[in-house]
Amino acid sequence: MKQLKLLVLLGALSLSNPILAECRNSGSFQQWMNGFKQQAIKSGIPANIVNGALNNVRFDPGIIQLDRSQNTVAQTFLQYSATKANPYRLSNGKRKMQEDYPLFQRIEKQFGVPAPVLTAYWALESDFGNVTGNVHTLQALATLAYDCRRGSFFRNELIHALRLIQRGDITPVQMRGAWAGELGQLQFIPSSYNKHAVDYDGDGRRDLINSKADALASAASLLRQYGWQAKQPWLIEVRVPPQMSWSLARLDKKLPVSQWAKQGVTHINGQALHGNTNTALLLPMGRNGPAFLAFPNFDVMLRWNESTVYTTSAAYLASRYAGAGQVRYGNAPIQVLNVGQVKTLQSKLRARGLRITKIDGIIGEETRAAVRQVQLQMKLPADGYPDLPFFQRL
What we know:
The chain is 52% helix and 6% strand. It is mostly helical. InterPro entries: Lysozyme-like_dom_sf, MltB-like, MltB_2, Peptidoglycan-bd-like, PGBD-like_sf, PGBDSf, SLT_2.
């Protein structure tokens, strides 16, 4: 019966998803697993560790289905941040910072990363350690490593998972988390766990699942190694004028704070900006929406998750924990495109010869750059955000 269900599911996946139908492996999963075990042993992991961890691992078609149908962030910043920086997370995060004040202070003193930033990631990644996932990590990683879509990446992650077992950080039974192999209260993939985790509670092992001290300190360790600057801001909300050089407002354009002031950008309360730190003007929903100055630490946060919407929301939540008020909606109403319209937009941009790697319905940095080019050609305000009037004109 189980074999029949597996065949039915695999058939349904192949028929319903052309990507899966086209992406096939040569050889059986067991043949692949036997070869992988030999490679793992040759890499220096003891045979008893490899066999003990992987002997009962099976191919899981449900993981493939999740991988093919994963929902990336296609919401606007205001939509996404409203769900992530909700009253529950705001109140609980502030309470957690108070309850664990000595721990957060010790972490900041050692790694330079403040409590609001760590708490924001803790809230978003696992609901403060309450939702870490219950998927068999080794089985998920082996399935994705065998699969032909991102096999090389997940083979490396599976090797790192075995090394975590080898060094005694975690047992195969304890290794349960999200479907793509993320583990613990801050959802580290095994390679990040192996490279950046620290034993902060002093029990002799790095336990990112059960020890909040280990989990939070490891997140701080990772951010510091990514380049976090202590005692420096990450994101501040600002007010933009009705008119300015909108093409300057992009993450890859850094100007001193004083130069943004000359453009007419002010603090949210209208007070003048001062300073020489190089920052980017971030307009997640264009010139009429919310506006932020993104400091170098924001670029560090982008290394945690390259999605601009996710990272802006994480940075915004951290700023709320640090005392900032609720974000403004902006200077004027915005006619937002739906996912289908964004896909059509991306197809039209690609047809113009502009770089659009994926037709995915997500207004990412690549899509914004292409939109900005067309806005300049059409002599429109080049803020890189495609609203409904721009879409209709295109």
